[in-house]
Every structure is written in C-alpha cells, then in structure tokens.
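>> received
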Amino acid sequence: MRLTRSGLTTIGRALDLQYSSNRAIAAGAPLAAMGGMAIALALGRPAGPSILHGLALGGATFVGWAVGREVDPDFPGSAVLAAVLSLTTTALLGAPAFALLLWALIGLRMLNRSTGLPAGVLDTGGFVMLSLVSAFRWGTAVAALAAAVIFADGMMAPTHPGGRRVTAAMLGAALAVLLIDHVDQPLALPAAPILASVLACGLWLSWTSFRTSRVTSVDDRHGRPLRLGRVRAAQLFAYLAAALVACSVPGEGFRATAPLWASVGALVARGLLRRTPS
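>> returned
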C-alpha cells in the first residue's frame, strides 16, 4: 500500500493496484454498488432509495475488506472473504452502522500501525469523538473499549511517548466513566444460541491468534514487519467491539457490526483451515 500522509492524519491508506486483493476490491465494491442499484430499480423501488441501497452494498463490501486486511494482514484472502460476507449480510439484513465501522477501522489502524506511523491529531481526535457518539448509540462499553485502545497503543510504543496520546487516553477514560455514570443502557444478553455462537467464535479466534507465531506483512512507510502483539490486540479489539455492540442491542447490533463479524469470521475460517504464515 502507498501511504497517504498529511500533518493531521497518518493512518490513511491508498489502494495500490499491483496487489490482486486490492484490484479485487477496486472492481468488486463498485460492482456491488451498481448491481444493488440495478436490482432495486428492477424491483420497482424509487430511484433515491435504490441509489442509497447500492451505495450501502458497495460501502459495506469495501469496509469489510478494509477491516479484514487489518484483522488478518498476512492473508489477503481473508479480506476478500470478509468483503463477500459483508456484502451478503448487508443484502440480507440492511446497511451496517458506517460511523461505528469508521470508529473501528481507526482503532484497528491505531493498534496495528499498518501505515508505520502513530495516529495523527485528526485520527486520535476523530476516534475519541466517534467513541462518544457511538457510546450513546450502542452502549457505554464502546467508550471504555476506546480508552483501552488508546492506552494499549501508548503502552506498545515506549520509544514514542507522545504526550498527545497520554492526554487522549485520559480523556477517553474520563468519557467512559462519565457515560457509565449517566447513561442508563444496561447490557442485554442475546438468546442463548446466539450467545453461545459469539463465545465460541471468540474462543476459536483466540486459538487462531495465539497459534500464530509471527507476522510477515510489512508496514507502508518503513517496510518493517508488523508487530505480532499489535496484530493480536487488533484482532481482539475487532471481536470485542462486535460482541459488545451485538450484546448491547441484540439483533440490531449484529446488523450494525456485520462487516466486523465478517472479518472475524474470515479469520476463524482461516484458522479452521490451519493456515499460518510460513
């Protein structure tokens, strides 16, 4: 990937079409959007909703792929599978929560350091603000998880103390406490079969993650291999974000986080195939 960098953001990643996975999503996301629009129009839906439906399908396909390559960076096939699963769930259940998914993608890139750089001012500020908005909509655990992400990012970068990140971590923790104290939104567990599936998925993800002994993918800026500890933290974050939202708002929460579940499912599927970096 080629790195897109400004003075404010350091986690933007531009598509490099020399990679087959990137070419697949560059063609697949627009095709999903156009196909969704065409089918909706053919079924007699008005033009406006048809366009929105197509954009939701294309956007979910791309986000599923983008999240998938952060969750399982060594296997481009996982990102492609995540894109397909995300497209399928969006077609069946409706559009996911794109603001929540942007929050998750920022958090994943902060943890993974896939661009090779720490989060910039805009990245960190946007993550905190999206955490606040998402916490009010999907449950206060989102804010607590966001604070943990910023704290973990700082702890895993001892050579870059970064006072800005320390301040952001304190702000995130304060937001979590504030929201937990003032928002009455108790955690509601889903039905037993769904809860069992969520827990089983988490257990298998943990097994897949910890049986991986190294990461071979490199960051965009320096060409250095990604750190295994950061990749594992990103995988755990993706799962926890999806699980917490799904449990906070049963049914609707799964739809909102479908691309996250798609990426976790792709990672679990790869683990079932027993494929690890050679």
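>> Confidence is low (pLDDT under 50) at residues 1-6.
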